[in-house]
Design brief:
With 871 residues, this protein is of the alpha+beta class. The protein is 34% helix and 21% strand. The strands form ten sheets. Strands 8, 9, 10, 11, 12, 13 and 16 form a seven-stranded mixed sheet that branches. Strands 2-1-24-25 form a four-stranded parallel sheet, with helices on one face. Strands 4-3-7-17 form a four-stranded antiparallel sheet. α4 crosses α5 and α22 packs antiparallel against α23. The structure holds one RNA strand of 76 nucleotides.
RNA sequence: GCGGGCGUAGUCCAACGGUAGAGACAGAGGACUUAAAAUCCUUCCAGUGUGGGUUCGAAUCCCACCGCCCGCACCA
């Protein structure tokens, strides 16, 4: 940027100089520190929280957007008289720190805390209104000590269980994953296909709360419907029947007199064609020892399991075990298969197959030539001839081919079957959930150690609370895969807390999602010697506004809801705080164009090579790579990502334009829930606007001088000012930051266009502009506020109130439609009665011409809005 | 396949069922300047994805279809 002559250089707003100055001023005055204890109990509380970052080392534009939004809320609420809690911390445990340690031969803590320092500096450069005195990282022993205390309390309250289970094993990260962390059959972090393993693990009993977590979703009206739907589906409640089939006498499985299945369609019991169990079903395992080929089949299923399945569009495969079950009513005999499409995780891991009314069962039956009997007949079909082809019929209808059920509707038939089976002691109605217990054991170092000891004599013994924290040892190595805690020479050898004999520590650590499931509560009293202090959590929780990415719609948000319930049960939270987040806002992503070229590798494979925005320039002939002057392909606008190299570094933007510009641009244009595209021209436009505001303010400061009388009258400028107050206030409250920004542009334009307003009205307009902008561009606002002669800071200024008298007009311009088409405009008094408005409309030339002397069929007058004349 | 969302100027986006345009970006012209930058002024551009319906009146409500995005996905 070329510097200009001295005069205009003086006039320019220098963000690089102003921003650190005001950040220092805020910090010195403790503007954002929220007091504990009595605090500001006279003021209503407001807790605003953005999802805390993982300390990867650098902030990205997604952070800028997220924290800019939260900051607008925090600053606006503070100006509106709320006692605001707006803290920040670090979600600091997890695999990347271990990976970094492996690569660099250093310690995860070194890497993590260095990253935290770097990111704190970057976040502070954004000028966020954060109470940094409450900062903590989840890897601080002070934090995980309290998490271990929670774990022990949960254990005591039967909220935890230790059980052997088939778990998802990530072969790359060499650790267990929760169901929620398996995406398309692959580990959420490593992307490697997940394997099944049998391990003894700690589980939080989240399924005990399945019904509560589901029902309470209806009360979360401050949450996006989308997220509630996703959680509802995840919990996956279904009503059905758990029933038992008698297994016919055989040599193969003499210990198995019956097979238990779960069904939501007991009405189709007479349509049964086969029974099937999961390859992981105990019966399958028992049979595998005796039935030739079954072991191989099960092994094949296990391997295919999850990854290829998606590609191959799930071909149904089965293995006839030779076993047969008896129909409970007809006595008919049906084969039992082991089938690859039966999930062990759901229901009982076994089904009865009704081919005619379930697509999967039909595919399977056609393949193995099994019986297909339609038992539900649609209303418009002939029961005598109704049959299915290759498409199962799943719609409503009446029951056929089903003995005592014939003629019933589906619901009645379900009940009839359930009644008869339960009377015979062969089944009962059950409610089933898709939600599984939350397995939290991880075979990793960089996590909170699970505070239990294994003793040969006493079994699993909880560590004593006074011995917390169970600290991670510092002297560990990462030169080999696996868990360093396991192979540490001394760490795990401890006396049993119960009997004092030699025993072994648990070497598993907790899933990092545990860390983030209660940090919002810890912020209320971050230095307490207990996990929470009731006075503080009772004052602050629930979080009034939580802001973060949609990617946490299930995992983090569901776990946190469970944790709040568990903490309430163990006395760490009020029973009123079981919903930790009163309102949730999920912001969109930050996107950018991509720049690439097709390049052939040595093997002759064509692939894309990407370039960063810094490496290319847009010219008249298209977009070129600077280093070689050759064109690049401008690709789709997608989420900023390292792999596509379409990232913009916030630090560079702040250095170039200032934090206010970055914040302003992030809030402009796109609605916050939608994706926003970062463009160079957009950023420049934002910077230009801030310069313009600065210029208007300094010009106005000259005009206003020292005059300080209150503005009076009803000038256009005053009306515009007060309308902006109303609109911006409403827009910010409703998370319509893009509209608030547009309103501020409107007010800015009005001030720029204003010629003759009196100094008082001009002062009012300019000061309003500054205060309305302050939540978004706080540094510029302070600088401008000072330029107008204020000694106090704008953060201390109260939010303005709109004067209702200035929001209404005396007269309004109303369009006049004839048959829905606009033909004229009339100007009438705002409170003119309908008949006056009607008369004025009908007196318009254009209307009279169309009326042609006749009288209208109807005249609709919407006061203040429109007149429609119907001929 | 199921569920949710979105389609409005060249672009991003506004519009209680009531004049399609608040605002921004980009473009064009002009002013200032030796020139450029910066700044200021003026200005072009769509009738709302498509087809129906409800209504005095539809971008908005309803139905169908098309396109894009996001979840979930053998859940018995």
């Amino acid at each position: 940027m070329i510097d200009d002559a001295g005069v205009s250089r003086m006039a320019r707003y220098d963000a690089g100089q102003a921003e650190p100055k005001w950040q220092k001023a805020w910090t010195e005055k403790g503007c954002f520190e929220t007091r504990e204890g009595a605090g500001h109990a006279d003021r209503p509380k407001y807790y605003v929280l953005e999802m805390f970052p993982y300390p990867s080392g650098r902030i990205h534009m997604g952070h800028v957007r997220n924290y800019a939004m939260g900051d607008v809320v925090a600053r606006t609420k503070a100006a509106q008289g709320f006692d605001v809690l707006h803290p920040m911390g670090w979600d600091a445990f997890g695999m990347p720190a271990e990976n970094a340690a492996m690569e660099r031969g250093s310690h995860p803590a070194t890497w993590t805390y260095a990253n935290i320092d770097a990111m704190r500096t970057q976040l502070q450069a954004m000028g966020l209104a954060i109470d940094w005195s409450r900062e903590f990282a989840t890897c601080d022993p002070e934090y995980y000590a309290q998490q271990q205390a929670l774990f022990l309390d949960f254990l005591d309250a039967n909220l935890l269980t230790r059980k052997s289970a088939t778990v998802n094993w990530d072969p790359v990260d060499m650790t267990v994953l929760a169901n929620e962390q398996v995406i398309d059959g692959c580990g959420w972090r490593s992307g490697a296909p997940v394997e099944k393993r049998e391990l003894t693990q700690w589980f939080f009993r989240i399924t005990d709360y399945a019904e509560d977590l589901l029902e309470a979703l209806d009360t979360l009206d401050g949450w996006p419907e989308k997220v509630r739907v996703m959680q509802r589906n995840w919990i996956g409640k279904s009503h059905g029947l758990q029933m038992r089939f008698e297994i016919e006498a055989n040599q193969l499985a003499p210990d198995w007199p019956e097979l238990e299945v779960y069904t939501t369609r007991p009405d189709t019991l007479y349509g049964m064609g086969f029974a099937a169990v999961s390859p992981e079903h105990p019966l399958a395992k028992a049979l595998a020892e005796k039935v030739e080929g079954l072991t191989a089949f099960i092994e094949e299923c296990r391997k295919l399991g999850t990854s290829e399945e998606a590609l191959e569009k799930a071909e149904k495969k089965g293995f006839d075990t030779g076993l047969r079950v008896k129909h409970p009513f007809s006595g008919e005999s049906f084969p039992v298969y082991v089938a690859n499409f039966i999930l062990m995780d759901y229901g009982t891991g076994a089904i009865f197959g009704c081919a005619a009314h379930d697509q999967r069962d039909l595919d399977f039956a056609r393949k193995y030539d099994l019986k297909v009997v339609p038992v539900v007949c649609p209303a418009d079909a002939d029961p005598a001839s109704f049959d299915v082809g290759d498409e199962a019929y799943v719609g409503p209808g009446s029951i056929i081919n089903s003995d005592f059920l014939n003629g019933m509707e589906i619901e009645a038939a379900k009940n009839a079957v359930a009644d008869r089976l339960s009377a015979a002691g062969m089944g009962e109605k059950t409610t089933n959930y898709r939600l599984r217990d939350w397995g939290v054991s991880r075979q990793r170092y960089w996590g909170a150690p699970i505070p239990v000891v294994h003793c040969d004599a006493c079994g699993v013994v909880p560590e004593k609370k006074e011995n917390l924290p169970v600290r991670l040892p510092d002297d560990v190595t990462f030169d080999r895969p696996g868990n360093p805690l396991e192979r540490h020479p001394t760490w795990k050898h401890v006396p049993c807390p119960a009997c004092g004999k030699d025993a072994t520590r648990e070497t598993d650590t907790m899933d990092t999602f545990v860390d983030s499931s209660w940090y919002f509560a810890r912020f209320c009293s971050p230095r307490a010697e207990t996990p929470t202090t009731r006075a503080e959590v009772d004052r602050w929780l629930p979080v009034d506004q939580y802001i973060g990415g949609i990617e946490h719609a299930i995992l983090h948000l569901l776990y946190s809801r469970f944790f709040a319930r568990a903490m309430a049960k163990t006395g760490h939270l009020s029973p009123d705080s079981v919903e930790p987040f009163k309102a949730l806002f999920t912001q969109g992503m930050v996107t950018h164009e991509t720049y690439s070229r097709k390049v052939k590798t040595a093997e002759g494979i064509e692939r894309d090579v990407f370039f960063t925005p810094d490496e290319v320039s847009r010219g008249e002939d298209g977009t070129m790579r600077d280093s070689d002057g050759q064109p690049v392909t401008v690709g789709p606008t997608i989420k900023m990502s390292k792999s596509k190299r379409n990232t913009i570094d916030p630090e560079a933007i702040i250095a170039r334009y200032g934090a206010d510009t970055a914040r302003w641009f992030m809030l402009s244009d796109s609605p916050p829930e939608r994706d926003v595209e970062w463009t160079e021209s957009g950023a420049e436009g934002a910077a230009r606007h801030l310069q313009r505001v600065w210029r208007l303010v300094t010009e106005a400061a000259d005009k206003i001088g020292a005059s300080s009388g209150a503005a009076t009258g009803t000038s256009d400028l005053r009306k515009t000012t007060h309308r902006a107050i109303r609109a911006v206030t409403d827009d910010i409250a409703a998370f319509r930051f893009n509209k608030a920004v547009a309103q501020i542009y409107g007010l800015t334009n009005a001030i720029a266009a204003d010629k003759g307003s009196d100094p008082a009205a001009l002062r009012e307009a300019v000061e309003t502009l500054i205060i309305l902008m302050a939540p978004m561009t706080p540094h510029l606002a302070e600088e401008a506020w000072a330029a107008l002669g204020h000694d106090a800071m704008v953060v201390e200024a109260p939010w303005p109130e709109a004067d209702p008298d200035l929001l209404v007009d005396d007269t309004v311009t109303m369009p006049v439609q004839v048959n829905g088409k606009k033909r004229a405009e009339i100007v009438v008094a705002a409170d003119a009665p309908k008949d006056v408005v009607e008369k004025a409309a009908l007196a318009e030339d254009a209307v009279m011409k169309l009326l042609d002397g006749g009288s209208p069929k109807k005249v609709i007058v919407v006061p203040g809005r429109i007149v429609n004349v119907v001929l």
